[in-house]
Amino acid sequence: MNDIAENIVEKKWYAVQVLVGYEKSVRENLLERIDQHDLGGYFGDVLLPVENTLEIRQGKKKMTERKLYPGYLFLEMCMIPECWHLVRKTRRVGGFISGTNEEPAALALDVVSKIHRQMQDSIEKGPVIRAQFATGDQVRIKEGPFSDFSGTVDSVNAERSRLTVMVMVFGRSTPVELDFGQVDKI
Predict the structure, then answer these.
(1) 129 in Cβ contact with 158 (< 8 Å)
(2) Cystine design at 76: which of 17, 45, 71, 81 (Cβ 3.0–4.6 Å)?
């Protein structure tokens, strides 16, 4: 009977609001519950869009995952009462987005395509570099010929992990190009 119902009901994409910071555990819990209730045929993908980021702090590089849509999961599913109840009764799920909570509206295909494209771009381009520096920040140079000088960040090149700092030398503002690891925020 499940095979017949599977062919009759079409799967569509829905957005679900979840508690921020619990997206991963809600996704895992939801997948477990789908298996426990034998509703796998009514669900497709349970998507948590993320991108890899490379953070540089105090000269150390750290790979992390950043959620593209914090507080949301995207589900490909058949909107039948059993599936609706399963999702709504999952711990830390706030509810469906768009439409009414009792009768959610499916996401437009162009929205889903955009989300998939963002994830694919993240994979193809490699990790996004996140710098802790911004234009106008006050920094202290900790190594090199200008060690112990203070200055203001003039520009940031996150792709190359470099920044330009304006330093006062002999009473004149001089641009100095440095690596992220060569400076500390004041």
Answers:
(1) yes
(2) 45
Residue pair 12/76 in contact (Cβ under 8 Å)? The answer is yes
Structure tokens at 46: 């349970």
- pLDDT at 53 (0 to 100): 83
Tell me, what amino acid is at 137? D
| pLDDT tens-digit series, residues 127-140 | 776 667 888 889 98
Phi, psi of 18 (to 5 degrees): -130, 165
Instruction: Please spell the DSSP secondary structure of 69-93, one letter per residue.
Output: STTEEEEEE---HHHHHHHHTSTTE
Give which of 122, 130, 131, 132 is closest to 52, Cα–Cα: 122
pLDDT score, position 59? 61
Token look-up 């994979």 returns 123
pTM tops 0.90: no
